[in-house]
Write a structure and sequence with these properties.
about 90% helix, mainly alpha
């Protein structure tokens, strides 16, 4: 059980790291696209279902 939860945590950490890296690359290469994406994500999360 401990090994499985450790693996899950590791996978989650890797996924978060990859997402952060791709976002950083996106922001550096085209700040406007990054801002639009962030605004869309925030809008989707804030908007009532």
């Amino acid at each position: 059980m401990g090994i499985q939860s450790n693996t899950q945590t590791f996978i989650q950490a890797c996924t978060l790291h990859l997402i952060r890296q791709s976002f950083r690359t996106l922001f550096w290469s085209n700040p406007n696209i990054g801002q639009i994406l962030v605004m869309q994500v925030l809008y989707k999360n804030v908007r009532p279902q």
